[in-house]
Amino acid sequence: MKPLDGFRVLDLTRFLSGPYCTMVLAELGADVIKVEQPITGDDSRRLAPKVNGESYPFGMPNRSKRSVSLDLKDPRGRDVFLRLAQGADLVIENFRPGVVARLGIDHETLRAANPALIYCSISGFGQTGPYRDRPGFDIMAQGAVGFLRMTGHPDGRPAKVGIAVNDIAAGATAIYSILAAELNRRATGQGDYIDISLVDAGLAWTVWESGAYFGSGEEPAPTGTRHRRSTPYQAYRTADGYVTIGANNDRLWHRLVVDALERPAWLEDERFATLPARMAHIDELQEEIEAITTTRPTAEWIKALDRAGVPGGPVLTYAEALADPHVIARGMVAEVEHPIVGTMRTIAPPAKFGSLEFEVKGPAPWLGQHTRDVLADAGLSEAEIAELYAAEVAYDAHPELHDSPAPQER
Description:
Blueprint: E1 8-11, H1 17-27, E2 31-36, E3 50-51, E4 54-55, H2 56-59, E5 66-70, H3 75-86, E6 90-93, H4 99-103, H5 107-113, E7 118-123, H6 138-144, H7 147-150, H8 165-188, E8 192-197, H9 198-204, H10 207-216, E9 233-237, E10 242-246, H11 250-260, H12 275-280, H13 282-293, H14 298-308, E11 312-314, H15 318-323, H16 325-329, E12 333-338, E13 342-347, H17 371-377, H18 382-390, E14 394-395
Parallel strand pairs: 1-2, 1-6, 2-5, 6-7, 7-8
Antiparallel strand pairs: 3-4, 5-14, 9-10, 10-11, 12-13
Helix pairs in contact: 1-8, 8-9, 11-14
């Protein structure tokens, strides 16, 4: 049994922030029903690469869910959604503020028939404030919270974080907020409304940066791979690449210079003897360290750092990271069988529980794959369902596959 068994989610989200949230809920046991527009579906379905016409990127955050395709702009589609919402525990959406009200599926409307409903809205800037109506993707949020000005190298152009960090921050914030609302609902029977923005979620992750700003007015600037408060803590050149070193306290500094780099005189060097001195002479320290680390390859330095008890490691490409034996041993690359794509690889859930089951339940659905089943479960007759299909209010991209064996991967 999983902690969210029996918890039904109507997922109206697209792209990444909301789908990431509902993927995690699904793999904790929730029945996530992804509600998508006919023909096009989630906008991320168009993203390449595609295999047999199905988007591989779409498949990553939308695994373990069911797909229902309804035209919510049609009154008949809206009425069906309202019926589904009466039996839902959570509705989650990431439209621009005001869209769900125009569709007639906003929180106030739905809670009238289902007072225990949890409703979560994710948007770029939130449901209130002067920027509420602005459209906002991850790049806008990264710019709005200062990430573009604190990432990259000094004197370089603004640089984004290498992943969609504000999207994932918003999705993660939605996960714990929904779980908190569900715990409260189980105790009180009351639902709740949750307003999450990409900007707020990203800003909440600026923990050290806010401390420095509120404490002294220091604004975070790009530092490459360096830490803003400590050194040595960055990537250093080696004979064949880079090695990361994290000797960020006096004990580790002693081990680094005595046992790994074999430069005990640095302990008495006034430029490096204390952390404030090392920070004041950080460029010189990098030059001195790299004069040593560039004489040997990365693998040798990792062994030397391990022997000295100093945190260190390689700077891998993404392909190298996925093939790393430790990543493989931790089970972080999983496989699922998709009825159209065939065998798909994906990133497994990261938490390892002692007894709780937390794993990929299945592949992402094709558009409208479960429309008929979900509508029948909601009490619609076969005639009603057939009428919705005929009117193109309900949709299934591959009705022919329901009775067909899964094709082989290309």
